[in-house]
Write the structure tokens for this entry.
Amino acid sequence: MEGLQRGNTLMCTNVTRAKYFLMACISLMFLLGENSALASELLWGVNGHPVGNPVFADYEKQFDIMRQNHLTTYRMDVALSEADEKLAIAQLRVLIPLAKKWGITLRPVLTVAFHWGDRTDTGHYPAGDPQALYRQGFDHVYNFVRLFKDDIQDWELENETNLLVHDWRGVSLYGRGWTAQEFDTPLMHDWNAVLKGMSDAIGKINDTNGTKLRRVLGTTSTNFGFIDYMLAHGVNFEVLGYHQYVHLGESPYKAWSKATPRFNLFQKLASYGRPVHFTEVNAAEIYDKKYKNKEDDAYTRKGYQSLSDELAFLKNQKDMPLEEVDVYEIFDDPGQKDAEARFGIMYDAATPKAALAIVGQVSGSGP
């Protein structure tokens, strides 16, 4: 591929502005030690927002940066509703040939109108009842995915749906949510209808065409009850997704839980008997108000070290069938507020952070 022949020129262009760039690289190399050969066993990638966001509009620039850093999977939002589906189709018709040119595998995250609280999809499913929600999920996913069934294998069903559930006090289930019973709520009944429709649509495409498309369903924190609830109520999937944002010093082998003793996160994920994708990964320090997002800031460097540790844990673990790690995200998004604006491993397409060197090292392109 073209990007592979150019070396890591972009990473080096502006990295001198990052005072602690070399420190980050050396730190990660020390952490990974003699296990660098394991990099080829995993797919490494990033998240992006290619539609309607000018920061991410230059697709070829994104894919060029990715290939220079051995990042080969690109996770992205795809909105499916009566208002959005034509744009989504046009989006993939542009992205698929470009992704093939650069050796990038697209990882679409499918969302439907109920994602924004629209039970009827602007009146196209007027009853708004569970059967209508099922049809909303089924119809859009079936019509859309069958167009691209020969180009994209893995399709993610919505994003962080587990976070929508709160207990009777209105408190998030963060650190709890271990049981299916905690997700037995009216809202999750509705979401079960949507997700089952989405899942069944891809199942029908496989049955009709002999394809082997895979469905990805994800969770976060300790909300494994979400997965158990959906499995118990007919939502089929082949790949388990997970999001991980941790602070420096936290270990997945002694993961924190509000409801249970500390536990081995990797073993818990492995217990579902499916391949695992860590579809969002970055440092939790980014959420903190004292995170300055500046290379010469001590707390920002702490976040870089946290990311380095997190990737090393994932790279070296042997407890679960991990296939892929997608860092969130490729560029900062200044149109967002607070932490959501600063998750990039680059400030923009021309200005890398030390985080890019860290990710490049673990993926196999670093020094």
User: Anything to note?
Assistant: Residues 186-209 form the longest helix (24 residues). Residues 2-342 form a domain with the TIM Barrel fold (CATH 3.20.20.80). The chain has one domain: 2-342. The chain is about 35% helix and 15% strand.
